[in-house]
């Protein structure tokens, strides 16, 4: 395969510097990332509104035990991600990236709508949490396929030399989904009372998400296709992916730390501020909303930085600094009720995490050839994300419930240290990448190369 195939999206070869070509590529980024925003908004609504709907599905026990049960269902949704990563990765590699993204956003729309209309424990008993579990499994399946396909698509349509900058918008919209969910929460807290939110107001954001998915569907239907159709026989198959098992394991290793730290400082942090630091719910929600906004807007800066210093340098800075910061930051946050200091500390933590999240999609896409890129990126990410990211809240709350809360901080630190080792082993994409590199990933990992880079 030639390197040029990754640079074609139905646009004439040699037109990479043409203004019209650049405009089409930017529109493709916008179209794909808009659906990404909606998918993640729907997914995070569950995490942010759990404080209010937990009693509706798990009425027995104290607030920590109720949150522990809802976090368990949150984690189960993550365990559907590997299946989604495989299913939608295979569709994207064999049928097309656009088709995969359209199906995934439709599935997320249905899952969100289902949660919005679910009966509570009071009306149907234990069937209520079972139905909630099924809806979350559907959403987990959808978002598991979304990440790999959108990361692949955005990496392929991004302009060479600026891939880090443009691909960073995947996390801009991923965080934007969190931010939108947080904004909806703050707005509803402003116009509704706590009892109203607990009784029925928590359903509103899920209806909003189902409606937004229709808009994303319209935008995604107009996207150009990037899939290389020259290798249909092996595209999206485990046999083809198995030839890149070293890269697959490297991605799993550094994604484990990346996912765990990301969810620790975002979705779990709201509960940590309320449950441990003793901050009021509204203050915690407002603080996290501002934090997420800052976190969102700095992603392109870290993506652009990787275009200058290299993806490997970004990953080493992220995992190295992260290993050193987790315990002191979490300890300080756990004894602080000042929202301004909390904002500063959480933003500092997420600035370090941004060395990874700003390039999360592109750094994985560069390690796999075209015929298994969506599968390789999606499945490796989903496995690590489900195992370590999806269980972050559950593990943190379990340690707290058993009087060992600080042990969770060290758990995160160990995973960050593993990510540091994986970043050391990771091939330099500038030299051994499948998008821009002159060598191959297999060469860098000590295997005799089978093909030229895709």
TrEMBL record:
Domain called Major facilitator superfamily (MFS) profile: residue spans: 28-431
Chief localisation class: membrane
SUPFAM superfamilies, alphabetized: MFS general substrate transporter (SSF103473)
The UniProt record lists the keyword ATP-binding: no
Record-annotated membrane-spanning stretches: 41-58, 70-89, 101-121, 127-144, 165-188, 200-219, 247-265, 285-303, 315-334, 340-363, 375-396, 408-426
Keyword Transport recorded: yes
Localisation per UniProt entry: Cell inner membrane
Keywords: Cell inner membrane, Cell membrane, Membrane, Symport, Transmembrane, Transmembrane helix, Transport
InterPro entries cross-referenced by the UniProt entry: H+-coupled_symporters, MFS, MFS_dom, MFS_trans_sf, MHS_symport, Sugar_transporter_CS
Topology versus the membrane: Multi-pass membrane protein
Family: Belongs to the major facilitator superfamily. Metabolite:H+ Symporter (MHS) family (TC 2.A.1.6) family.
Protein name per its UniProtKB record: MFS family transporter
Originating organism: Methylobacterium longum
